Amino acid sequence: MKRIYMDHAATTSTDVEVVEAMKPYFTQKYGNPNSIHSFGQEAREAVEEAREKIARLIGANPSEIVFTAGGTEADNYAIKGIAWANQKKGNHIITSQIEHHAVLHSCQFLEKHGFKVTYLKVDKYGLIDPEDVKKAITGQTILVTIMHANNEIGTIEPIKEIGKIVKEAGIYFHTDSVQTTGHIPIEVNDLGVDMLSISGHKLYGPKGVGALYLRKGTKIVNLIDGGAQEKNRRAGTENVTGMVGLGKAVELAEKRLAGGEVDKVVKLRDKLITGIMDQIENVRLNGHSTRRLPGNANICFEFIEGESMLLNLDMKGVAASSGSACTSGSLEPSHVLLAIGLPPEIAHGSLRLTLGKDNTEEDIDYVLDILPKIIEKLRALSPFTGSWDGLKKNSVEEK
Amino acid sequence: MSIYSEKVMEHFQNPRNVGEIKDADGIGEVGNPICGDIMKIYIKVKDDKIVDCKFKTFGCGAAIATSSMVTEMVKGKNIDEALKISNKAVAEALGGLPAIKMHCSNLAADGLSKAIEDYKQKIKIKK
Ligand code: FES
To answer: Which residues does UniProt mark as catalytic (chain A) (predicted)?
Structure first.
């Protein structure tokens, strides 16, 4: 059976060219970049070249790029690092309710250590109102951290507008750009951010590597202490292969962006969304119709549950994901879907299909062919048919 | 590869006894307080024996498979035997469930005992 991957927001394949670029650094050029011999120096060169590529993609200076072990570490570093370094100035952080757990849980950690955090609400599309950011700023605010685009519903936040407000207030501004770097054009000065998190494996690079853009002059403390690597900002022998891979992935992403790849993905995405909405009843699109990640389709199918959809799709070779409680591991529906105002029973029926550069029109046609049958099959099993009548009574009784 | 056993997947793909019984003698409806799933189970009783059983479930793969399994297990049993079917027994009959999914089997056995309670209530009223 042909397998179709539509879970690119979870991870992507590592591009063959990326793997090729990494290879020599395992077995031939395996030196430690901190060694002065030629083995070390060829590794050093490769690391700095990768750093330059990342800097170029986002309009930064290479010295402003710090490699990390991924997007999660970049988020932790930015948030905790700013908090600890600036606690004399204040103890207040502003974020949103729909951030990735790497951000939310970092903030919650800081709350346990005396920091105050404001979790901004979003509207039904998942958008943050820049005015709300303005209103939330106090004399104690030291950091605003808002994601560039949401990983579940794909909504792209008004980072530039927020950036202006935050800058005026003289506060640090961080954005989690894990879903956007390499997928839409990014320029740190245009966005007005001081820190920006990047992850390798979301843009056809390897897992276990990422980076934090750190604007020159930003007052931050380290997360990882040890040797003097990364200009004393992130200790530990460099993950040379990973960094080389990330550099190559970014280089390829830059080419794709210049080559109009975004439009191609957007077209496929819109075909998928309209195809589903036209064919199936009692569905709703989550997120915004246009302010949306190129590859993201997130749709709720009423009266059925997400995991059973995923299993059925998987049996037909299609890989997707869901914000259903049953798939979350914590048995709570996605915090993002609840934040945009969905009742839990509807959040339960969410399906996220995230497209990537290798998806084709045929893939979309295939999904549009099998999905209605799957939905029909599952709805035939559901005690709710065409309405949620009877739900209230039940849930009150049981809780 | 699947997170579930073959038996679970088999029941999930071909659930037995799906539907409603129009003139059911007992109906049980339970919601899963843990993840918010819902099951409705219908029984038909003749001479103290469960002669038919059907279900409808809004839930995950494990919830659907355990619903299907319980309807199979209960058919032909008398009321007392049926009441003894435990969540554990249903899970075991399915070749086990992943730890995080054990609570899903509650839906099935709890739904069944509710349906039987409902049946008992109904005969009391008749008498
Ligand atoms: S019923 Fe929700 S996890 Fe199984």
So the answer is: 326
Chain B neighbors of A325, CB-CB under 8 A: 35-37
Q: How many CB atoms lie within 10 A of CB A23?
A: 14
- CA pair distance A99, A147, nearest whole angstrom: 6
Can you tell me the distance from the alpha carbon of A103 to that of A121, in angstroms, rounded to the nearest whole number?
Answer: 15
The verdict on A266 and A282 lying in the same domain is yes
What is the domain-level CATH number for residue A385?
3.90.1150.10
- How far is A270 from A287, CA to CA, in rounded Å? 13
Q: How many angstroms is it from A385 CA to the middle of ligand 1?
A: 20
CB of B10 within 8 Å of a chain A CB? The answer is: no
Q: Dig out the tokens for A92 from the structure.
A: 């207040």
Mark whether A253 and A312 lie in a shared domain.
no
Last residue of some domain: A210, A240, A257?
A257
Per the structure, the complete domain to which residue A310 belongs is given by: 260-396
Cα(A348) to centroid of ligand 1, in Å? 10
CATH classification of the domain holding A203 = 3.40.640.10
Beta bridge partners of A116: A92
Contact at CB, B61 and A311, closer than 8 angstroms: yes
Q: Is A99 domain-assigned?
A: yes
**CA–CA distance, A249 with A22 (Å, rounded to integer):** 11
- Residue A395's pLDDT band, with cuts at 50, 70 and 90, is very low
Q: Are residues A193 and A294 in the same domain?
A: no
d(CA A275, CA A367): 9
Amino acid code (one letter) for A218:
T
Which positions of A are catalytic?
Answer: 326
Residue in this structure with the two tokens 């699109």, named with its chain if needed? A285
Are A110 and A80 contacting, i.e. CB atoms less than 8 angstroms apart?
yes
If one counts the domains in chain A, the total is: 2
> Mean pLDDT for chain A?
95
Q: Are residues A132 and A267 in the same domain?
A: no
A72 known ligand binder: yes
Which of the residue ranges A190-194, A319-323, A383-387 would you say has the lowest mean pLDDT? A383-387
CB-CB neighbors (< 8 A) of A345 in chain B: 36, 58
Is A172 part of any domain?
yes
